[in-house]
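Reading a protein record of the kind used here takes little practice once its layout is understood. The fold follows as a row of integers, each naming the local backbone shape at the matching residue. With these conventions in mind, the following record can be read line by line:

_____
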Amino acid sequence: MRKRLALLAVAALLTLTGCAGAGALGAGANTLVIAIVANPQMNDAISLSHEFEAVNPGVKLKFVSLPENQARAKITASTATQGGEFDAVMISNYETPQWAANGWLENLQPYIDASAGYDPGDFIPSIRDSLSYQGSMYAVPFYGESSFLAYRKDLFEQAGLTMPEHPTWQQIADFAAKLDNKQAGVAGICLRGKPGWGESLAPFTTVANTFGAQWFDQDWNAKLDTPEFREAANFYVNLVREHGEVGASSAGFSECGTRYGQGQAAMWYDATVMAGTNEDPESSKVVGKSGYVAAPVVKTEASGWLYTWALAIPKVAKNKQDAWKFLQWMTNKEFVQTVGKTYGWNRVPPGCRFSTYRIPEYAEAAKAYAQPTLDGIDAADQRKVMTQPVPYPGIQFVGIPEFQDLGTRVSQELSAAIAGQITVDEAIEQSQEYAQTVGDSYRETK
């Protein structure tokens, strides 16, 4: 039943996105086709891929690099329908255990065990476990993250404000109001408003969690119209409307990264991986000006998420041995060294391997954010970030197949509220209907 619902969710997602399979990509017999998300760290890997080809003669790499929402849709469509377009795909800890259970992914544990020096014990346990199913890894992490808050130390000092190490969301809202300077083009805070279950829904759901909200209760009753969820939605929408970035309803991770790096926001709440970009002189005008503190809370001990972009091999891939060689190259200890020496240590993929944090050059470059990143990943536990038990895995997502469709629909309602097209109450009313339909399907199978 769950696998059938997963396929139905994929069909619904394709209807929403208009996404079809990759089709004939023109790859030769010795060409690996890699579907990858177009984030900065992945772009660095693409630029270094000639080094893989140099030590693997006869193997060529072809990357299908897409923005996050498009990449998710295309990869999901190809993998779920066993289209066979890709030899390796970039997915996350949301998809990995579900797709492994469905039989859509190759079990990587035999490859890992046979690869001398790969050292899977070096992976941070929570990251490794999130990519495992029944004790075996089905994807290997490229980078790992939680979420935290970046803030401009210089602007805080000028305003006579002090950021606590563990702020509350009310404190952040107060700071945003005081630091918002529309005349100077500086928003009080940058928060994602772009539709997508992995875009605006990621930070928003952590806010909902710490306000005491939940998507479903233990009996799969939808809980989006509760006072807690309603309060969280009003808080998030009002904060970004009043003191957020211009065009917030279409701003995602990349857009907020650009604005913060260009000095156009006093604070930014998002993925811990943002810090490398903030501190990169090639892309940021605020290098050395940021502090990093724990994800803000309301009723919980912590509120940061747990996420990892990882690489997997579809079960139907035809060239699995060469695909594993690529996965091994892109996720081993040596790759971290290559990135650091080539592009600078702030661009190293973080949050996966303990050994990364023992590299002296990285420790120096990342001294402002390395420990907050590790602390966030360590604290990313449902028991710490939620006030009530829930029947699903995940923190910033609901770990069920239907969430790709459900989360996207709810995010569209939230984005419309941010844009002022509908009220928060209207967004919640419609979102509750979407969620209840999903909850009903789970209650029927209990």
Summary: The chain has 20 helices and ten strands.
